[in-house]
Amino acid sequence: MVIEFYLDGRSGVSPYLQLVQQVRHALRLGLLHEGDRLPTVKDVVARLALNPNTVLKAYRELEHEGLVAARPGIGTFVTRTLTDASLAAHGRLREDLRRWLAAARLAGLDDESIEALFMTTFRSSSQEDVA
């Protein structure tokens, strides 16, 4: 399977939107490519204990955005990606981030603290870039 969905009950983000975001992230990072097949609605429902309409809503939104296309009886397939020229830098940046995460854990931070630190820094950095 090309992508394996997961749900974060603590995120405050609706399940269908989490699925949409995970596909967008996979497309942006080059983990999904044109022609790749998304998991069937039945598989996602069984794995995540979701209502089928939730998965269908996510897939319809992705289809509306032109990212996937449903082929009745066959599946849902990626029709375009969101990668850009900076994809080559992802590997190096991912390794830098892994080192930073290891340092944060060595400093005694738990996952929730790491996420809070990252998101606070990310948001303040984004606001500084706008100003």
Describe this entry's structure for a reader.
The protein has helices at 15-28, 41-48, 52-64, 87-106, 111-130; strands at 68-71, 75-78. Helix 1 packs across helix 3. The radius of gyration is 17 Å and the shape is globular. The chain has a two-stranded antiparallel sheet with strand order 1-2. The N and C termini lie far apart (43 Å). With 131 residues, it is mostly helical. The longest helix is centred in the last third of the chain and has 20 residues, at 87-106. It folds into 2 domains: 15-78, Arc Repressor Mutant, subunit A; 87-130, no CATH class. The chain has 5 helices and 2 strands.
Tell me what portion of residues adopts beta-strand conformation. Answer: 5-15%
Helix-strand pattern: HHHEEHH
- What is the average of the pLDDT values? 89
For the termini, the CA-CA separation is 43 Å
Q: Shape from CA axes?
A: globular
Order the strands across the largest sheet as they lie in space. Answer: 1-2
Number of domains: 2
How many DSSP H or I helices? 5
Radius of gyration: 17 Å
| Biggest beta sheet summary | 2 strands, antiparallel
CATH class group of the largest domain: Mainly Alpha
Give me the CATH fold name of the largest domain. Arc Repressor Mutant, subunit A
Helicity, as a percent range: 55-70%
Low-confidence stretches: none
Class per helix and strand makeup: mainly alpha
- Looking at CATH, the homologous superfamily of the largest domain is Winged helix-like DNA-binding domain superfamily/Winged helix DNA-binding domain
